[in-house]
Structure formats: C-alpha cells, structure tokens
C-alpha cells in the first residue's frame, strides 16, 4: 500500500513539474540576451529566436 502511494505521488509530482516548466520556462529571451552580451556576442533577434526555439524543442522531446 505504502509503495503504491509513493509511486503515485512521485508520478503526480513529476507531471506537475513538467507542466509548470512548460508554462514558466526557467530562462527567457531577456536572460539569453544578457548571457550573450556577457560572453561578448552581439545578440541579434534572429539568433535569440533560434536559441529559444531550440530550447523549446528540446523540452518538448523529453
């Protein structure tokens, strides 16, 4: 009984966190722009959109 409750809770929490991270990604375009400037790159809109799309595609795979 206890093991079944633990497993059910684990999978429910996992699903909740996956949905939460899809709705509220841990990094946004402003953060990417700041990181690129700190690395010495000039952040173009095209490059920012490409990086965001790649991150979104990577999250959707999992």
Automatic annotation (TrEMBL):
Keyword line: Membrane, Transmembrane, Transmembrane helix
Main location per the UniProt record: membrane
Natural source organism: Ligilactobacillus ruminis SPM0211
Protein name: YneF family protein
Domain of life: Bacteria
InterPro entries: EF-hand-dom_pair (IPR011992), UPF0154 (IPR005359)
SUPFAM superfamilies linked to this entry: EF-hand
Top-level taxonomy: Bacteria, Bacillati, Bacillota, Bacilli, Lactobacillales
Membrane topology term: Single-pass membrane protein
Subcellular location: Membrane
Family under the similarity heading: Belongs to the UPF0154 family.
Cellular compartments per GO CC: membrane
């Amino acid at each position: 009984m206890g093991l079944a409750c633990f497993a059910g809770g684990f999978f429910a929490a996992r699903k909740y966190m996956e949905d939460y991270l899809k709705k509220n990604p841990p990094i946004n375009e402003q953060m990417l722009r700041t990181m690129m400037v700190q690395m010495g790159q000039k952040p173009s809109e095209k490059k920012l959109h490409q990086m965001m799309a790649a991150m979104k595609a990577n999250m959707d795979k999992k």
